């Protein structure tokens, strides 16, 4: 039973790693696309009525490329996840509000921003064992306090 549980945990950790890399890669690709056409992105943002559209475009690049990279390598996962989810919430509010979840004719819809935002949060708060966050001092498991160890020993009897 212990071997089965251990192999299930390893599979879950490996799955989280694969998901983090895949989701991070999608965000990096979107951010890189914004960066490679920064003037067009800024014009698009200006058309949405965003103030300082070039700065907004650069912020989008930083969030998507930086957050996607952090997500993929498993570093500062909650921060990356919240930033990416906020970016997707902004994309929904500015571009996709009023669009259907799935457009029958292939028109504008919001399923991509919904799935990417939710997926970023899911792997950002459950990144698995194969994440650089595990090496940070504040994310290492702490030893139980003496009172907790004593209470556990008494409860086990």
Automatic annotation (TrEMBL):
<dbReference type="InterPro" id="IPR051907">
    <property type="entry name" value="DoxX-like_oxidoreductase"/>
</dbReference>
<dbReference type="InterPro" id="IPR032808">
    <property type="entry name" value="DoxX"/>
</dbReference>
<feature type="transmembrane region" description="Helical">
    <location>
        <begin position="70"/>
        <end position="92"/>
    </location>
</feature>
<keyword id="KW-0812">Transmembrane</keyword>
<feature type="transmembrane region" description="Helical">
    <location>
        <begin position="44"/>
        <end position="63"/>
    </location>
</feature>
<feature type="transmembrane region" description="Helical">
    <location>
        <begin position="112"/>
        <end position="132"/>
    </location>
</feature>
<keyword id="KW-0472">Membrane</keyword>
<dbReference type="GO" id="GO:0005886">
    <property type="term" value="C:plasma membrane"/>
</dbReference>
<feature type="transmembrane region" description="Helical">
    <location>
        <begin position="12"/>
        <end position="32"/>
    </location>
</feature>
<protein>
    <submittedName>
        <fullName>Putative oxidoreductase</fullName>
    </submittedName>
</protein>
<keyword id="KW-1003">Cell membrane</keyword>
<keyword id="KW-1133">Transmembrane helix</keyword>
<comment type="similarity">
    <text>Belongs to the DoxX family.</text>
</comment>
<dbReference type="Pfam" id="PF07681">
    <property type="entry name" value="DoxX"/>
</dbReference>
């Amino acid at each position: 039973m212990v071997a089965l549980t251990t192999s299930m945990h390893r599979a879950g950790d490996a799955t989280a790693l694969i998901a983090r890399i895949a989701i991070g890669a999608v965000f990096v690709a979107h951010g890189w696309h914004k960066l490679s056409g920064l003037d067009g992105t800024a014009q698009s943002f200006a058309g949405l009525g965003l103030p300082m559209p070039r700065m907004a475009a650069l912020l989008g690049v930083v969030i998507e490329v930086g957050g996607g990279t952090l997500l993929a390598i498993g570093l500062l996962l909650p921060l990356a996840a919240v930033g990416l989810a906020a970016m997707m919430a902004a994309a929904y509010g500015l571009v996709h509000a009023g669009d259907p979840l799935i457009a029958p004719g292939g028109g504008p819809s919001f399923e991509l921003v919904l799935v990417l935002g939710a997926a970023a949060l899911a792997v950002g708060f459950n990144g698995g064992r194969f994440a650089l966050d595990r090496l940070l001092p504040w994310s290492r498991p702490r030893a139980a306090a003496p009172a907790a160890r004593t209470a556990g020993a008494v409860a086990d009897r």
